[in-house]
Amino acid sequence: MSFWSTLFRKSSSNALDRLVYRLDGTTSASGVHVNETNAMRVAAVYSCVRVIAETIGSLPLNMYRRLDDGGRERAATHPLQILLHDRPNPWQTAQEFREMLTEHALLRGAGYAFINWRSRESNIVDELIPLNPDRVQVEQMPDMSLRYTVTTQVGAQIPVAAEDIFTVRYRSRDGLQPVGVIDSGRDAIGVAYATQEYAGRFYRNDATPGVVLKHPGKLSKEAAERVKDNWNNVYSGVGNTRRTALLEEGMAIERLTLSADDSQFLETRQFQRSEIAGLFRVPPHMIGDLSRATFSNIEQQGLEFLSYCILPWITRWEQSIVRDLVTAPNIYFPKLSPEAILRAD
Predict the structure, then answer these.
(1) What pLDDT sits at residue 93?
(2) Nearest-CA neighbor of 235 among 213, 257, 266, 214?
(3) Residue 288: per-residue pLDDT
(4) Helices marked H in the chain — which ranges?
(5) Alpha-carbon torsion 163, 168, 174, 179, what sign?
(6) Could you give the CA distance from residue 110 to residue 171 in angstroms, rounded to a whole number?
(7) How far, in Å, are 69, 196, 273 from residue 265 at the CA level?
(8) Which of 27, 134, 163, 170 has the most CB atoms in a 10 Å sphere around its CB?
(9) Which phi and psi (to 5°) does residue 254 adopt?
(10) Terminal-residue alpha carbon distance, the chain
(11) CA 272, 275, 281, 286 torsion: positive or negative?
(12) What is the C-alpha to C-alpha distance for residues 127 and 114, in angstroms, rounded to an integer?
């Protein structure tokens, strides 16, 4: 049965049970459950993913023909040229498609698309349909070939041959199961997420450490609750910061915790931002961290970003296209051109 004819077929009773959704994530050392969704709420992670995906998406991608003299010429009439350069499917541009699959590969370890072949022999592909990587499973068959299983939103599990799947893989420990940055840097991202959540609560609660209101006498339970509620209503929240407090009946204020400066809260957030940038191999200044940027080193960092971060992704994309889409790689080949980044220093 074809991919499309089984797309909305009713699932078997245990189809959803067999599919491993990576939605809950696993617990990091900080106690935070880290998955791809909440990791993107960390500003440093979002910035790193964005700068890599947008850069790969914006690079010109063209098909070329090898010449007998060792040179090359652009293959403007090649069937893959329009698909890869302009529009891989009816609803996405080439940049949107490459950004999406690069983001999937960064976070989940691999980006997948279904290849809708018109003619495999003629190397004609009608469209590339992006797939949710959480719903794609890969297994190795007895003959060592790969088989993919795609689970639709209605729970139908569709076996798909390897030649019908386009894959951009980031890392893998066994050559099959993808490993993303989230898997490798879960603890660092968990700490960053925890400190970011703490920052939100810190400012929501008046940007001031907790206090104890001391009364010289004894208050009933109802009176104590009333005093606490009145205090929170009047003095809690960023909008009420530094308002003058009026205490009666001999009440006094006693602070319980250290200030953010004393606990080196800002330094912790700065360190986590730099550590996450290292996980993605993105220069810190490209995600807004200018603490160590100078006029003399920022250009060199830009070149290192191209050499050590973007170049491996260019190679991944080019080799994935040759492996999955080009039927005559000895004649035709794709090229992502980084020259667009080097137009100005």
Answers:
(1) 95
(2) 213
(3) 75
(4) 15-18, 36-39, 43-58, 79-85, 94-108, 181-184, 186-204, 221-235, 265-280, 298-304, 311-324
(5) negative
(6) 8
(7) 62, 10, 13
(8) 170
(9) -135, 120
(10) 54
(11) positive
(12) 8
What is the H or E stretch that residue 146 is in?
A: strand 146-151
The identity of residue 302, as a single letter, is: G
Q: Write out the two tokens for 290.
A: 């200018």
Question: Which two three-digit tokens encode residue 16?
Answer: 């959803």
Does this model's pTM top 0.85?
Answer: no
Q: In what order do the strands lie in the sheet with 136-140?
A: 136-140, 146-151, 157-161
Burial classification of residue 251, based on how many CB atoms lie within 10 Å of its CB (0-12 exposed, 13-18 middle, 19 or more buried): middle
- Whole-number Cα distances in Å, 48 to 106, 213, 282, 289, 320: 10, 44, 6, 12, 23
How far apart CA 262 and CA 278 sit, in angstroms, is 27
- The residues facing 112 across adjacent strands are 131, 167
Cα 96 from Cα 54, distance rounded (Å):
9
Which residues of the chain are modeled with pLDDT < 70? 1-31, 199-200, 202-213, 215, 219, 231-266, 268, 292-296, 340, 342-345
